[in-house]
From TrEMBL:
Belongs to the ribulose-phosphate 3-epimerase family. Catalyzes the reversible epimerization of D-ribulose 5-phosphate to D-xylulose 5-phosphate. This is Ribulose-phosphate 3-epimerase. Transmembrane segments: none annotated. CDD domains: RPE. InterPro entries: Aldolase_TIM, Ribul_P_3_epim, Ribul_P_3_epim-like, RibuloseP-bd_barrel. GO terms for cellular component: cytoplasm.
């Protein structure tokens, strides 16, 4: 069964506790936290203090997607705030292997994200150390963008690499995922779908989460 990670970037922050409860009731598997610094991407969201405040609201794992420059400086802060998975961008850190080691040394899962224009071979020599690859199917920085269709081949190519090398890596896809394309994306090899406005813009996020779980 496909795993669903609702992104709170599209949630109502004035009512965040209830929003989290709604997607948990709908069967969400993770809460996706889009962390933006205004440098790596042209937007600013939130940081460890917000994560720490909402950690006790839900039992769902927190999936922290760090769209920030030099993420290695903040690994301990996000782990201490309650992150269960930390994903860093290949493009954002000079020493990716060291950054992944820092995450793993804190006893949590580590992922690497790739922007749409970043080739898969950029992570060829790091894959045996990571738990997840996040394929960005929009340019990071804003919610509500349309899925970039050329990323379909990137997803299927990554699936082939993982299968051939017999790696224990999950494929997560983030950007422009809606009910009308979610099944196709899953069939390409995606195992975790990040969904923002596709869930939180719905009249009933609980029921919408259930629909994604049953694609």
């Amino acid at each position: 069964m496909i795993k669903i990670a609702p992104s709170i970037l599209s949630a109502d922050f004035s009512n965040l506790k209830d929003e989290l409860k709604k997607v948990e009731e709908g069967g969400a598997d993770f809460i996706h936290l889009d962390i933006m610094d205004g440098n790596f991407v042209p937007n600013i969201t939130f940081g460890p203090p917000v994560i720490k405040r909402i950690r006790n609201v839900t039992k769902l794992p927190f999936d922290a997607h760090l769209m920030i420059e030099n993420p290695e400086r903040y690994i301990d802060d996000f782990v201490d705030a309650g992150a269960d998975i930390i994903t860093v961008h290949e493009e954002s850190t000079r020493h990716l292997h060291r950054t992944i080691q820092s995450i793993k040394n804190r006893g949590i899962r580590a992922g690497v994200a790739l922007n749409p224009s970043t080739p898969l071979n950029n992570i060829e020599y790091i894959m045996e150390y990571i738990d997840m690859v996040l394929i960005m199917t929009v340019n990071p920085g804003f919610g509500g963008q349309s899925f970039i269709s050329s990323m379909k081949r990137k997803i299927s190519d990554l699936k082939d690499i993982i299968d051939k090398r017999k790696l224990n890596i999950e494929i997560q896809v983030d950007g422009g995922i809606k009910l009308d394309n979610a099944r196709e994306i899953a069939n390409l090899g995606a195992e975790i779908l990040v969904v923002g406005s596709g869930i939180f813009a719905a009249e009933d996020p609980t029921e919408e989460t259930k629909k994604f779980k049953n694609i």
